[in-house]
Amino acid sequence: MISWRKHYRQTLIAIGLLLSTSASIYGQDGDPKNGEKLFKANCTACHALDKQVVGPPLKGVVERVKTEGGVDKDWLHKWIKNNKELRASGDKYANEIFEKFNKTEMQVFPNLTDKDIDDILAYTTNPPAPEEPKKDATVQAGTTDGAQAAPQSSTTTNVVIISLLAIAALLVWILLKLRQLVKLGQSEDLAGLNETRVKSFSEIYAKYHYVGKGLIAILALLATYGIWNWIMWIGVYKGYKPEQPIYFSHKIHAGEQKINCQLCHSSAKYGKVSEIPSMNVCMNCHRTISEYNAQHYMEPGKDKAFYDGEIQKIYAATGWDPAKQQYTGKTQPVEWTRIHNMPDFVYFNHAQHVVAGEQAIINSFNKKNPDNKIDVVCKACHGKIDTMNVVQMANDFTMGWCIECHRTTEVDMNNGYNKEYFKNLHDKLKKQYPKDGGKITVDAIGGLECGKCHY
């Protein structure tokens, strides 16, 4: 009986130890997959797994703090939730870390639960293997198009060859006919006709001078029109897309990452000119993004090494040392190639269009282009920038193009300022154009006055 009770007690102890061990494994280790999401949402601004960014690398941080400072997960919980409070309590290891990293303040995360922190630490201890990248739909489409283009290209080649053979046959036939005519001209039957033929250009002109003068006048008109048309298109470079010193894809930044245009072009909304962003604007993100990890989107002919190399050009331009996480002071100016360049005699104010005319321009554009609508006013002039890998001039930017926009863009008269300021004009136009309900377009409020656009 005693032996049975002893055996029973040992069994209970073993089961208890097993349960407590299981609880420790499954309750404290956390979920690495959920930890990865939380890590990317909260930590990647300052940390990476395998290298120093603003803060130290976090791979194996649980074991590292145990070895370096003799602390456990509970200490990490306190540090992550409120490191300031932990340092203020006089914790030696917390203050050592603070001093080691140049007294850089770490953000506090009181919103993270104990389970969230366990999940993050599980991710840093045992990060899940990366998923196989999916091929971009655009690339797949490009591959399919390429496969279909092969037979089309072959067909085109055959058509060209047949056309060339037909032209060759026609030339041979013309040569044979010319030979027959030469022989006929040498016969006695045409001797009389040869005597009556006009033998000089002056004789031909004297005989048909009215026709000649008419042809010369037509040619002069055509030449004048051609020269005028050529002059009018000087400086119009629609489709111009130069290669820049640092490759920058608007499709990746504005399209894939949904970065707002005005984050980089901040003066476009409140200034006359939309400036080229400083390289320090790029560093706001690329201080922590040192390599290209968007394997789901790669342009044809470009690989990860290419994109990583372009990021290194940013570091070289700003004098940033990614290994030491500090600026060296040695900078290199970037000579960007300008794409849009208004003549000196033209006045154009970005703020006037982006702020005052924003909704009116978007509404007008979408009304004229129902199948190609826009959601940002910038796209009305610059095209769908968020789909461009290499920025190009999307419109003519001629005087006629601007005037046409002023004639068709309706002013928002429900705006309190416009409603009061143009009250008399609005009443006048209602009477003048009763069918249109007195609609006011930009040209009606001075949009065609020379002085508005020219100094």
Automatic annotation (TrEMBL):
Residues 30-128 form the Cytochrome c domain. It comes from the Bacteria. Residues 124-150 are annotated as: Disordered. CDD domains: Cytochrom_C3. The keyword Metal-binding applies. The keyword rRNA processing does not apply. Keywords: Heme, Iron, Membrane, Metal-binding, Signal, Transmembrane, Transmembrane helix. Residues 1-25 form the signal peptide. The chain crosses the membrane at residues 159-176, 215-236. It holds the Pfam family Cytochrom_C. Residues 140-150 have a biased composition (Polar residues). PANTHER family: CYTOCHROME C7-LIKE DOMAIN-CONTAINING PROTEIN, LIPOPROTEIN CYTOCHROME C. This is C-type cytochrome.
